[in-house]
Amino acid sequence: MKPETWLPHVTVAAIVERDGRFLVVEEHTADGLRLNQPAGHLEAGETLQQAVIRETLEETAHPFAPEALVGMYMTHFERPGGEDVSGGVTYLRFTYCGASGTPDPARALDPDIVRTLWMSADELRACRDRHRTPLVMQCVDDYLAGRRFPLDFVHTHSVGHKR
Question: Which residues form the signal peptide (predicted)?
């Protein structure tokens, strides 16, 4: 019998700030309606920057231009019958900050997204119970504290052949 393989889920998130307000999405989750940054999973063949650009566009209809990496975050959620041998799911999240353009009004949002909102940090703090994860506020706080790493902090190496 082959032992189960543990694999983290790699995700990306975008911090978009305009006039002291942050772009967030309200989305359907297994726990009901929750607030989150535009975020999602890294797909095969993508770089992290390509993933955050794609996810932000899909979830908000806003084009996104990453300017810096705010941080890398790891979190583990215990869930009965979860995906790994410990009964939970581990996420490794790369959060970028950057500028967004004008949303495309003709673009449909991802099916789980109910709407986009612009909220201040204080408004986000006041509704922590509605955040998808504690990382929502942690990423905003890190951004507000000035945490920035250059985009080339994470190097992507593409190999054209199998090892």
Answer: none
